[in-house]
Protein 1
Amino acid sequence: MPNLTRRSVLLGLGASALAACVTAPTSVVTWPPARPFPKVLVERDRITRTVVGLRPYRAQGFRLEAERFGEKIVVHNYGHGGSGVTLSWGTSQRAAVMAGEAGRLDVAVLGGGVMGLTSALILARRGYVVTVYAEAMHPNTTSNIAGALWRPSSLYSRDVATEEFLALNAKVTREAHRGFLPYVNRPGYGVSWVQHSDLTNTVPEQRRELPGGDELYPDLEILTRETRFGFAYEERCHSLMIDPDYYLDMLMKDAQAAGAKFIARRFETLDEVLALAQPVIVNCTGLGARTLFGDETLTPIRGQLTHLLPQPEIDYSYIVGGLYMFPRKTGLVLGGSHNADDWSLDVREDQVRRMIDGHAALAEKAAYSTYSEP
């Protein structure tokens, strides 16, 4: 969801996957086994909806810390860029620990997206009296629009992030991955494994591990021949896929079942926030923290997704440069736009056209691809 430079941000899911972590040796597989390759039907009359969302990006990375305002403790848990769903279990568990260290039972959670819901669920299950305040609730949050392949992306700038943050992020990433595992194939949650491919036109001189470490991606293969779509280089593995339409619905129900209460409310100022009765506040407001807490380091990265009718036979996903396709029960998700510092929520026809034309061209290549040796 391309318009950011590679030096300024981990661009897109594909670039993040190929260039985000430490260098690691790997073997090269040149001839994968035969496998059926269903064609994605990319046609304009199969479009069901196009949605736009704004990722809350901080060049230095997410904010995860406690701050005191008089008698109030505010635990900040925001600024995850394009990794909100991905990192939700990692940072929210740490935020819950920070909230608990205040030693008070009543906790307010600000924000109804994936961070707010996850923080509320964890705290409620630990016995806290939790009230969630949010202007937008499921299914009308930015998290509902996420592509939600489990792959940290658009998260920080390599030029700005500190070594301390990078070390924290490495730990949080692995903790977040573990948080999703109990939900895989659990009825109703929309979490599953999918065979995924990252593809590029060139073979990297030095390969880097996938975000969080290669061991988080089962069946990893590095291909330089007979690749999907005929590209020069492919990293193929299984990755977790989360369908927000299902997952956030169940997450909210779980939080309510654990005792969390939800109140629709818009906050205009920090004073309004600090006037809440709860002595501990967990701030999961995303871009809203720019206004409420004066965090001007927050900037939006605009993303636009086009959804197609479902194709149950499509059991793979891919990222090719500025394009990606993720399969869901609710439909196929076509994405690949990253517009930095862009606050517009309007659908752009030129981006719809780029998605349709680009993925249609890939689908035609797939229709003639084989895994047989020439």
Protein 2
Amino acid sequence: MKKIYIAGYDVFKKDSIQIGQYYCELCDKYGFEGLYPLDNVVNFEQSKNKIAQDIYKANVELINKSDIVIANLNAFRGKEADSGTIWECGYAKALGKDVYGYMNDNQSYLDTFKNDERQLVDGTYVDMNDMAIEDFDYSINLMIACSVKEMVFGSFEDCLKELLK
């Protein structure tokens, strides 16, 4: 049975444990074993730095054990995906694992900036800090968009269904 590491900012939600259980149940339904970061056992009665190191090491080990990574790449605390999730995708890709991403919709990254948040300067869109806005018709940064095996516009379950095609 192939193992799927479930990456994403869902671990920060109030009902994160229940979300992880649900995702693991979906994995089982489709013939996979789900590996959810919050399934790790970490001692929280130690220094914050030690806790962080333990979480990091445990998540790396789960990615190492996995065959596939499915990542929630929806925007988190802004216009970009969670930076920890992006690191996990890059690490898995470097190990030669298949990485699948999912997002709610396929709006281009440029279009996530409202008209009053961007302006066209010499043929290039820039944000309010005069920084160029990536415009390649992807919903996410090109380095992620070009490295995932498949970007699914829908839910975690939709992504699982894509694996079976």
